[in-house]
Amino acid sequence: MIALLARDLRLAVRAGGGFGLGLAFFLLVAVLVPLGVGPQTELLSRIAPGILWVGALLACLLSLDRIFALDFEDGTLDLLATSPVPMEGAVAIKALAHWLVTGLPLVLVAPVLAVLLNLAPAGYGWLLAALFLGTPALSVIGAFGAALVVGVKRGGLLLSLLVLPLYMPVLIFGAEVVKRGAQGLAVGTPLALLAGITAGAWALLPFAAAAAIRVNLR
Amino acid sequence: MSIWEYANPKRFMQLSGAVLPWVAGAAGICLVAGLVWGFFLTPDADRFGSTVKIIYLHVPAAMMAISAWAMMLVASLIWLIRRHHVSALSARAAAPVGLAFTVIGLVTGAIWGQPMWGTWWEWDPRLTNFLILALFYLGYIALWEAVEDPDTAADLTAVLAIVGSVFAFLSRYAVLFWNQGLHQGASLSLDAKENVSDVYWLPLLVCIAGFVLLFVTLVLMRTRTEIRARRLAALLARERVA
């Protein structure tokens, strides 16, 4: 499983494209929104939590179809299915690799972009915490969506349509944490709920995704 | 004699063919009676005027939008566990009907909301949830259409229906957390103190019965169509081989 993780990471970094794409998209959103809505700082700081979360979510969405599509086309997925590693484990590892190459960089770069959007100083720690706890859920939910459409040619649009409603709770709780944190309110409840969704999604969705992949390989 | 006998497509076609005209007729009678009674024979409400009458479309459609998803969930589970094709096809047949009810709920709500709340759309928990529900229906239907092999499509959509139900439930509470609403609370529950008065309640019940029967009619018709399409495909395949 560690070999699989290392392979996925190496592929993501060396094959180009996917690795920087999400990050560049996130940067673009954070730069374009102030240009679009105007430079009033108090307005920007009010919408900053939402913009950052929506940007992170869309950046994550951008690279989802890469999780399984290439491996499905060249037959790697068939080999994985016959290997001693259970499919559930392989799915979880691939989702983890996706998070390490897209989610984690987004988390790390978010505070810098928050400066551009004039987030209130109290919000930075909570922004990091919320993204750190929430983006893994985005990756594993996305892996489930990618597993559903892996057999469909050019399933990108379908994938976004399937995954977007599933992202709703994560987005709501994540943005709520940052918003409350920036205003200096208590953030315990949404943060706990966000962590709960992430933990639940990682515990259960690999099984659903593995079932979908087995169906697609049949 | 058990209900599973009707999982056999032939038995299902016999039974549904026999039942269909009666259900359809009952749906027509209930809908016409309920809507005429509701629209023309009830007084205007004090605060809402005649706009209150949209309740006869709005409430039953919204109830059936959620019930249709529940029915799809049960049918998907039956397909996954017992592999009855009729079950998978009925889930597929119910999805567009459920989507139509969701859209009717949203549109009638907007038409009512414009004079009453002064806005067509409000990011109220119930409205938001219905929008999300419509997205779930769209994704479900799109997945059915996109996957070519019918059994694969049935399996994948069944998994999606199960995961989607969990997330729809989560969204419901997430949205409540996110915004307190403008929408009035339940006005039909059996234990609530503030129910609508009997003048509106009785025609509304008839309308709800009509919408349930309409849903059953449409799903039966669409399932029969799906079974016939499947038979036709099998015949064509056999002809190609021969």
Model description:
The complex is a heterodimer of chains A (218) and B (242). Helix content of chain A is 83%, strand content 0%. Chain A has 218 residues and is mainly α. In chain A, helix 7 (123-148) runs parallel beside helix 9 (188-217). Chain B has 242 residues and is mostly helical. Chain B has helices spanning 9-40, 55-82, 85-117, 125-146, 150-178, 198-241. In chain B, helix 2 (55-82) packs antiparallel against helix 3 (85-117) and helix 2 packs parallel to helix 6 (198-241). Chain A binds chain B through residues 144, 148-149, 151-152, 155, 158, 161-162, 164-166, 168-169, 172-173, 176, 189-190, 193, 197, 205, 208, 211-212, 215-216, 218, and chain B through 132, 135-136, 138-139, 142-143, 146-147, 152, 155-156, 159-160, 162-164, 167-168, 170-171, 174-175, 177-178.
Key words describing this protein structure:
heterodimer; A: 218 residues; mainly alpha; 9 helices; B: 242 residues; 78% helix
pLDDT < 50 stretches of chain A:
none
State the end-to-end distance of chain A: 23 Å
Give the overall silhouette of chain B. globular
Order of helices and strands of chain B: HHHHHH
- Discrete helix count of chain B: 6
Q: Count of DSSP helices of chain A?
A: 9
What does the largest sheet of chain A look like? none
In percent terms, what proportion of residues of chain B is strand? Answer: under 5%
The major beta sheet of chain B can be summarized as:
none
Strand content of chain A: under 5%
Mind telling me the C-alpha Rg of chain B?
Answer: 20 Å
Shape of chain A: elongated
Q: How many angstroms separate the termini of chain B?
A: 38 Å
**Poorly predicted runs of 5 or more residues of chain B:** none
Query: What's the number of structural domains of chain A?
Result: 1
**Which chain pair has the greatest contact?**
A-B, 28 and 25 residues
Please give the number of β-strands of chain B.
0
Number of domains of chain B: 1
Average residue pLDDT of chain A: 87
